[in-house]
Write a structure and sequence with these properties.
alpha+beta, about 425 residues
Length: about 425
């Protein structure tokens, strides 16, 4: 073992006359561990929220959407067939979009009405898994059934079996003037995604009924696609635009819901910077600890120098001590952070019962527990930043130790 490593490890242990310095070293180590663990847990929870948000949005939206000019796509079967030729595309489903007013009794609400083919829609979205009443396949052509979002149904005070009146913006021209198009629909189901935008403003009807109501004929608004890897949506969208061609527009989920994911990503970066300051504070404690050790060990340094130790050897002795503090603190923080991130679903309910508080109210957030998604890249990045800060914190005290002059240090010994 090199003597620098041997002496550096000896200095990390408590001695009879420097318990205070050892206590500061333990505080520095605990500070690094706390900062690393907090950073791992917070980023894991934010990853979990991002994953939950993505799952809820894509439960009703699609990975890629192909539309035609003026919101009308002709020969959609051919477009869907050519899209399915791409190995990344798993399924395709047509849809018709339209605006409408829904009325039930004295209540009236505006909504986006989407005409779908229930069988094909199940392959591109997860609406059927979020039904709280009825079934999606109850939307049969010609029966004029409608599935409402939970908040929309609550606002209308409409329940399955009730008949709501749909008022389409396209009117009928008669000798008496322009008359709105009215159609009575029977509520056959209610879905709840957990996104207020969809739950309060989306209604689903059968594709054939939507084509008839909005006078689309055999055309549709577009085709929705599901991909094998949703993170390849941008690349696949560019490939589809080149392969399909024609007068079409293609958008993917990262563009249509960019604000949600950009906000979460910015919050994640800001939290990383803020919580890294905890590790930075612990690193300053390492600086203070090593400066006190250097001051306390000046006589030892002078003796080592007289025995032939070079300034570089002295510097490496104190580098070892600081790096050991950083390594142990980082290791403890990584272990504690991983264990806590993997058991957030158990720890948080225990704390809620203990303190009699609710971290997440299900009636407000639609989720009853903190989601957690531990990612290896985050753990590696956090550990690297912690070790780097710990190493930088040892440079100045170690350099100061290497500049100690033996004659001055031993003058009063």
């Amino acid at each position: 073992m090199p003597f620098e490593l041997f002496i550096g490890l000896r200095y990390t242990r408590a001695k009879r006359r420097n318990h205070f310095i050892s206590f500061i070293s333990l505080i520095s180590m605990a500070g690094i561990a706390l900062g690393v663990a907090a950073l791992i847990v917070v980023l894991s929870v934010m990853n979990g929220f991002q994953k939950e948000l993505r799952a809820r949005i894509l439960g009703i939206a699609s990975h890629i959407q192909i539309t035609g000019p003026d919101d009308k796509l002709r020969d959609w079967q051919s477009v869907a067939e050519r899209a399915r030729a791409n190995p990344q595309v798993l399924a395709a489903a047509p849809y018709v979009n339209g605006q409408a007013m829904l009325a039930y009794g004295a209540d009236v609400r505006g909504a986006l009405v989407r005409g779908i083919d229930p069988a094909l829609e199940q392959e591109v979205a997860d609406v059927g898994e979020h039904m709280v009443a009825g079934r999606l396949d109850a939307l049969r052509p010609g029966e004029f059934g409608i599935v409402l979002g939970a908040e929309l149904a609550r606002a209308l005070r409409a329940f399955p079996g009730d008949r709501v009146t749909l008022i389409a913006p396209q009117g009928l021209v008669t000798p008496a003037g322009l008359i709105p198009r009215l159609k009575s629909f029977r509520v056959v189901g209610v879905f709840q995604i957990g996104m207020f935008e969809y739950d309060s403003g989306l209604a689903l009807i059968n594709l054939a009924d939507a084509q008839r109501l909005y006078q689309f004929g055999d055309t549709v608004s577009g085709v929705r696609l599901k991909l094998a890897d949703l993170f390849q949506s941008r690349e696949v969208a560019r490939e589809l635009y080149r392969s399909i061609g024609g007068d079409i527009a293609i958008s993917d989920w990262t563009r249509s819901h960019a604000n949600f994911f950009r906000a979460v990503e910015i919050e994640k970066r800001v939290m990383f910077i803020i919580l890294t300051l905890i590790i930075g504070v612990a690193a300053f404690n390492v600086v203070a600890t090593l400066v006190m050790v250097v001051t306390d060990k000046q006589a030892d340094i002078a003796i080592l120098r007289t025995l032939g130790a070079t300034p570089g050897s002295v510097m490496r002795i104190f580098l070892v001590q600081g790096i050991v503090i950083g390594l142990l603190g980082t290791a403890l923080g990584v272990i504690g952070g991983i264990l806590l991130a993997l058991n957030v679903g158990t720890v948080v309910p225990f704390m809620e019962r203990l303190l009699n508080v609710h971290v997440l109210d299900p009636s407000v957030y639609y989720i009853s527990e903190l989601p957690s998604d531990l990612q290896h890249a985050d753990v590696v990045g956090i550990a690297t930043v912690s070790l780097l800060l710990s190493f930088l914190a040892t440079l100045y005290p170690s350099w100061r130790a290497s500049r100690v002059r033996p004659a001055e240090a031993l003058r009063y010994e």
